Amino acid sequence: MKRLACALAFATLLPAAHAVEYTQVQPDKSAINFVYKQMGVTVDGKFRKFSSQLKFDPAKPTAAKASFDVELASVDTGAAEGDEEVAGKAWFNTKAFPTAQFVSTSVKALGGNKVEVAGRLTIKGKTQDVVVPVTFTAQGNTAVFDGAFTIRRADFTIGEGAWAKFDIVANDVQIKFRITASTK
Amino acid sequence: MATQHYTSTAKALHWLMAILIFGLLALGFYMHDLPLSPDKLKLYSWHKWAGVSAFLLLGFRLLWRFTHRPPALPESMPKLMQFAAHAGHLALYALMLAIPLSGWLMSSAKGFQTVWFGVLPIPDLLEKNKEVGDLLQTVHMSLNLLFVAVLVGHIGAALKHHFIDKDDILIRMAPRHSKEK
Ligand code: HEM
Questions:
Q1: What is the CATH number of the domain that holds B123?
Q2: What class, spelled out in words, does domain A19-182 have in CATH?
Q3: Are B57 and B20 in contact (CB under 8 A)?
Q4: What is the pTM of this model?
């Protein structure tokens, strides 16, 4: 009897004692990609380097926090001259603005394994509010977060001068990511 | 002896593709050296559309060639020269096939799909892969340099037949005689 009471007491304590919080982002299992249209043709690329801070407890998703710093010079457009061009003044101007930042401001639980992360995205000195739907799969001590949202490059003056028109490179750019994080 | 002409279809395909290919070669070498700009991307797309068009025309041309035997070479040509002519034509066909194919594969490997005239997506046969893309770019360029060399030989030979041998080799591909056959 005593043993059962003990077990019950332990069982009620269990969720709290075992609350999992995913905080350690694993760069080698994470990716930030972008997709856009070039003369109507879908083209994608990625950023090779970024760092991020994350706090996510599946039991308390609204308390989650996330921030990202993306090294813009690590852009991979699929062509060397494209990488060079996009790092240049007319696009990211990485000399003056080396990183893009995202900082979450609030998280809404959408039920199931879906959340909506609102935050502020700063690129090239311009800040915009963005809302990012995220799907997570938490398994043991790793969680994978998948999401995508679309920005308009003109909002951040990405692609100035000859590139400012959208006939060749579209205004809409979809940012897609997969972040893998583990518990401590 | 009456001149035996190529069929009008064969002539039309020959000259249409000649114009297209000279345009493609000139555009290809020109655009390659341009600094990146919206215009450069536009020219790349046009080059790819024209290249795919040349590829499709070649398909039709090969079908025509297999079903319509071209007129025989003149008896006056030495056997070795006849052999060289056939080998040269075979090389031209092979290059007309391999060059657009390498361009298509290069575009796939580089991750820039070809959408013919912005309307018809051409399937990507290769996964995106930088090394493969760079390799195919070198292949595309090398084949084109070889193509230019073979074309110089082709045109030189045609002119030699016309002005030195004074035979009807050039005439029988000339468009204005097409009504004779
Ligand atoms: C008969 C058909 C074709 C001819 C004669 C041709 C000729 C050429 C030439 C001369 C170049 C410049 C080579 C260099 O300097 O790098 C070039 C480049 C190129 N071609 Fe083609 N081409 C043909 C078909 C195609 C097709 C079908 C495609 C794609 C669907 C294509 C895609 C490209 C691309 C992307 C380049 C640029 C490579 C670079 O600079 O990155 N070509 N072509």
A1: 1.20.950
A2: mainly beta
A3: yes
A4: 0.88
